[in-house]
Amino acid sequence: MSKPKVLIVQELWWPKGGGGILATHLITKVLVRHGFEVRVVTGVEEHEFIDNVVFIHEPRLRASNKLKLWFSVYMVSRESWFRRLVEWADVVYIPHYAYPVIPSVKELGKRAIVHYMITNQYPTHQSYSMVIISRATLRVRFTTSCINTV
């Protein structure tokens, strides 16, 4: 039986970035410890490595703003090397802003896990959203919860 394969697409990697980047780093360590085969596409070259994880450095994921990043990610997602990585994977995990890879992932019939978090600067209000993409279709189910502590 082959190991489950996960492709992670994230523009930053630990120690660059904040808490979300650290969470992805720690989740990756847990996946490897539980027998998953993991490959990471990131724009960061100088980062903390994880044993048994293959890192692919893609400089176009180092865009200076989200619009440039989304355009660059979309262009990368259409390239044959990236599509081969998606075909290799059982699931593609998108924990940050690389959302334009979703159409390519779905075109190839693969599952996408998108971790989408909205944070608010105000301590009296917190909100979060999760996006779950179905394998069979491009249907998206949004679950949103808002908590007001006022």
What would your notes on this structure say?
The structure is a single chain. By secondary structure, the protein is α/β, with parallel strands linked by helices. It has a single domain, classed as Rossmann fold (3-Layer(aba) Sandwich). The protein is built from four helices and seven strands; from the N terminus they run E-H-E-E-H-H-E-H-E-E-E. It has helices at about 20-35, 65-75, 80-90, 100-105; strands at about 5-10, 35-40, 55, 90-95, 110-115, 125-135, 140-150. The chain has a seven-stranded mixed sheet with strand order 3-2-1-4-5-6-7, with helices on both faces. The longest helix has 15 residues, at about 20-35. It starts with a strand and ends with a strand.
Summary of the model, kept short:
The protein is 28% helix and 28% strand. It has 150 residues and is of the alpha/beta class. The chain has one domain (5-119): Glycogen Phosphorylase B (Rossmann fold, 3-Layer(aba) Sandwich).
Task: Report the span from N to C terminus.
Answer: 52 Å
Low-confidence blocks of residues = 121-150
User: Mean pLDDT, nearest integer?
Assistant: 79
| Largest sheet features | 7 strands, mixed
Major beta sheet, strand line-up? 3-2-1-4-5-6-7
Structural class: alpha/beta
Q: Rounded to an integer, what's the Rg over CA atoms?
A: 16 Å
CATH class membership:
Alpha Beta
Shape: globular
What is the CATH third-level topology name?
Rossmann fold
Order of helices and strands: EHEEHHEHEEE
Taken as a percent bin, the fraction of beta residues is: 25-35%
The CATH architecture = 3-Layer(aba) Sandwich
Q: So, the CATH homologous superfamily?
A: Glycogen Phosphorylase B
Count of spatially separate domains = 1
Count of helical regions: 4
Number of DSSP strands?
7
Helix proportion: 25-40%
